Amino acid sequence: MNIIMDAMGGDNAPEAIVKGSIEALREYDVKITFSGKEEEIKKYLNIEKNLLNRIEIINAEDVITNEDKPVKAIRKKKDSSMVKGMNALKDGFGDAFVSAGNTGAILSGGLFIVGRLPGIERPCLAPLFPNGERFSLLMDAGANVDCKPLFLNQFALMGSIYMENVLKIENPKVGLINIGTEEGKGNKLVNDTFKLLKESELNFIGNIEARDILSNDADILVCDGFVGNVVLKLMEGVVSELMGRMKNEILKTTKGKIGGYLIKDSMKRLKDKLDYSEHGGAPLLGLKAPVIKAHGSSDSTAIKNAIRQSKIFLDSGVNEIIKEELDRGGNDN
Amino acid sequence: MNIIMDAMGGDNAPEAIVKGSIEALREYDVKITFSGKEEEIKKYLNIEKNLLNRIEIINAEDVITNEDKPVKAIRKKKDSSMVKGMNALKDGFGDAFVSAGNTGAILSGGLFIVGRLPGIERPCLAPLFPNGERFSLLMDAGANVDCKPLFLNQFALMGSIYMENVLKIENPKVGLINIGTEEGKGNKLVNDTFKLLKESELNFIGNIEARDILSNDADILVCDGFVGNVVLKLMEGVVSELMGRMKNEILKTTKGKIGGYLIKDSMKRLKDKLDYSEHGGAPLLGLKAPVIKAHGSSDSTAIKNAIRQSKIFLDSGVNEIIKEELDRGGNDN
Fold this sequence. Notes:
Two copies of one chain form a homodimer.
Chain A: E1 2-6, H1 15-27, E2 31-36, H2 38-42, H3 49-52, E3 55-59, H4 70-76, H5 81-90, E4 96-99, H6 103-114, E5 124-125, E6 128-131, E7 134-139, H7 149-165, E8 173-178, H8 188-199, E9 203-209, E10 220-222, H9 225-250, H10 254-274, E11 282-285, E12 291-293, H11 300-316, H12 318-328
Parallel strand pairs in A: 1-2, 1-4, 2-3, 4-12, 7-10, 8-9, 8-10
Antiparallel strand pairs in A: 5-11, 6-7, 11-12
């Protein structure tokens, strides 16, 4: 199993990417192919020969930054670590691709270079979203801002297969993000999707109201990419603002200051629990080969975890099962 | 000035509605017309004669509950306090209508009974949303789940006039809720709306990312009613979940328990600040006469505040200014 790493993507690249990959080499039975500036990558490769033997480098002199326009960058920056890495994935040189780089570019590259699984209308970005004491797969978190009911139905199918086979959740529950719980609530897209999901063989548990997004039973939360991105970012913003303001309120009084000191550890625990960026990478589901988006601020541990996730993705045969299900047409009519 | 009150709408009706209205009669130069069960309303009317002289009652034997389907309830429950109250508003018997009842029914009644201002495509529910240390008008918070760019452009116009004349904010800033800050980000609706807003005479400050919804400069946050409702409810859910979990985390250790006790007041202050339900009613903008939706759990003080808000709405002549602006066509092309 050969995982292709975008060595230049992310806030801590290439150091965290290379170091995390080496940690993964020590722990898992994988090979690593780095795509990126060979010279810079080699700086961090003073390691044992037996590990070095499991590493390849595709030299790529250019880098796609967060300031680049996604589609344009994928088309024009042919010598970038991302484009070269994705081309290698497409050509079968490796089995999965991991990047902590420009999210939009990863999505565009996934679509235009790696390509969709036959029968899949749109690939979908699916991070694990902290939901109560567990996690739900939020689909779509931003890959498709304008959706049709069939797209959302396919997201639910892919998400169910992923949760069942990668996270080993039996008969995973699908919820539809909506502005009310009863059938008939919401906009046209959500209404029509409700009907498709109800008729499907998936374990559809109905609408999930936005106020219950942190406290519901769904393993998969389905919505279009605009709403999903709003949910993800709002959640991030509210948690961080709330923690900040809490601090301000607490520091206003001496009593509060002492109290704040005493609850510091509890707060840190809570913040970590709600931080979705801590929980590995987000797979881009529906592509011919696994593409995993690691968080931009990934450290070496997060990178190692993303590689672990790619390995489980590949081992579990998610893509093969998706193909079988689509051929069977079980969910698709 | 005669404010028509839905005496039977809300969790604490009719008591809180009648008592809040009496408080308003003592403080403001208004008349009150109650729509509802006369017998029940009269239970709370053991008051001075000079106040009684400023009260009328429209007897209505039926009530629209939160379980009723909005459109159906407005059509069928002709003898409900809400339908009778709105009809009285339409017929010019009063100047504004306040209800803490079924939100969907208020929206339907506003549209079908009271009617739109000429030139306005869709009325819009516009609560004050806690935004940093200030408030923004969130429009639309759920009245229109499927929108066109022109609707959103009109929301922005109405919101600007409301904030300028009711909340006395000079040259109010309009922000567009989006999944990125640059022009060109987001779905088709938001993209096309961006162009309209940029060309308008409004003080458009661009896209506001969901993560910055609690910390931005906009006085008006524009989005479709589906996204707006998700934002409002998610915010409510996250704040309440977070406070709950914080409590759980804190109670896990003795140190935390003492700390928690010491910060209790600070937490209460913060929670109140973020509770949008505390901040009066939400106007339904774009109707021929003001309709104000008070929070379902309103107590008598909240009801008094909603009446105060109706009074300012009427005094400020918002509707007249909206009509003038539309006639002028300044924002509408």
